[in-house]
Amino acid sequence: MSRKPCCIGEGLKKGAWTTDEDKKLISYIHDHGEGGWRDIPQKAGLKRCGKSCRLRWTNYLKPEIKRGEFSSEEEQIIIMLHASRGNKWSVIARHLPRRTDNEIKNYWNTHLKKRLIEHGIDPTTHKPLASNSNPTVAESLTPLNAPSSDKQYFRSSSMPSLSSPPSSGFNPTCEVSDISNNDGTQVQGCSLSCKKRFKKSSSTSRLLNKVAAKATSIKEILSASMEGSFSASTSLFNGFTEQIRNEKDSSNATLTNTLAEFDPFSQSLYPEHEINATSVLGMDQGYDFSHFLEKSQNEDKNMNVEYSHDLLMSDVSQEVSSTSVDDQDNMVENFEGWSKYLLDHNDFMYDTDSDSLEKHFI
DNA sequence: AACAGTCTCAACCGCCTCGAG
DNA sequence: TCTCGAGGCGGTTGAGACTGT
Fold first, then answer.
1. How far apart are the C-alpha atoms of A194 and A313, rounded to whole Å?
2. Which residue of A184, A190, A208, A340 is most buried, as measured by CB atoms within 10 A?
3. Whole-number mean pLDDT of chain A?
4. Closest CA to B16 C1' — which residue?
């Protein structure tokens, strides 16, 4: 026995909503509130299915909905959550205030998914694509088909954190040096489409770098914390903690912002001649993990949360780990929960094995 | 200018979940 | 415990916009 359609009726309108219909719906909900969607069309004078009204309201008309381009932080959250949760758009949407699940789903399907594939990463499993014969993290994030001269260019410290030209659709005749830096300097001597592709893809590379950095760094953090201190071999984390130590205005910094700014693949952090995992930064002394935890706690207390960091951490950790945290407001514990997840799932996104990581930096 | 191919995203479809009775 | 139905969810579609030739 099949379920009957929610809306059976002659003359029900379908397709794009008109301004007039929008006004009627907004006016009705303004006066009567949400809910009772089945009755709303009739009461509001709309020839629409109640379900259609609900979707129109929740995905488009709701006043608090944020529209427009996704920020890099939002993209990071989407990728991280998708890696752990899959196509749970409503769950992901809960961590991105004012974004709808439909919008996130569309953005994933039309932008992020495509870009991950371009970088040789399976958007479903978040692992390197089989055809890439197990590329390493760095290889996955490095331009595979860019001219060597361009690769060299992107290693230049003159373009901090700009790590990759587009892996597809990249026009080798387009002079990279003519393209804008991240500070928004005017682009010159390059076609509009080229600029757009470049901007989009280079931003993706930075994003992927950041996500990879989080995965590897968090794993390092927890590994080291279990041992009590950090050794020189955890050079990646040394850079990470150093970055945190150097944060001058921690009062307004969020943990996400701090993490987002750490980019182990950035040449500004690791000049080419220093890229060697056993001697990066030349730090031999151990690091006290409590420093990081304390800072995280302070930031958590002070930060003006734009995104649901605590919710993000607790939600993920609780659902994927049997040793879930009890105190959802405790950022550190939640952070550890998320870290534990990463540790428990070594195949989280990439091969984060420290040996292979070292190889990337030699 | 015209056409074809591609992209974007609002909207729809059908199944699922869960609370009320 | 079972049934029903409203609301929620994820996958898919297709019209319009955009881009390339």
1. 38
2. A208
3. 51
4. A3
User: How far apart (Å, rounded) are the C-alpha atoms in residues A172 and A334?
Assistant: 45
Half-sphere exposure (Cβ direction) of A177: Cα atoms closer than 13 Å = 6
Measured to protein CB atoms, the chain B nucleotides within 7 Å are 7-16
Q: How many CA atoms lie within 13 A of A173 on its CB side?
A: 1
Residues of A 262-291 whose CB lies less than 7 Å from any atom of strand B: none
Nucleotide nearest to A196 (CA to C1'): C19
A42 touches strand C (CB under 7 A): no
Q: How many helices, marked H, and strands, marked E, lie in chain A? A: 16, 0
What the block records as the tokens of A251 is 């009062």
**A245 CA → B9 C1’, Å:** 43
- From-to residues of CATH 1.10.10 in chain A: 19-61
Sign of CA dihedral A167, A171, A176, A182: negative
pLDDT digits (tens, 9 = 90+) for A71-102: 888 888 888 888 888 888 888 888 888 888 88
- How many whole angstroms separate alpha carbon A29 and alpha carbon A21? 12
The whole-angstrom separation of Cα A276 and Cα A265 is 12
- Comparing every residue's Cα with the C1' atom of nucleotide B8, the nearest one is A110
A19-61 is classed in which CATH architecture?
Orthogonal Bundle (1.10)
Q: Does the CB of A158 fall within 7 Å of any strand C atom?
A: no
Whether A52 sits with its Cβ under 7 A from any strand B atom: the answer reads: yes
Does the CB of A196 sit below 7 A from strand C? yes
Q: One-letter amino acid identity for A238?
A: N
- Sole residue written with tokens 């390493």: A136
Share of chain A above pLDDT 90, in %: 0
| Residues counted in chain A | 362
Residue range A118-156, pLDDT digits in tens: 778 888 888 777 655 444 333 333 333 332 223 222 222
Q: Give the distance, in angstroms, between residue A285 CA and nucleotide C11 C1'.
A: 53
Closest nucleotide relative to residue A90's CA, C1' based: C9
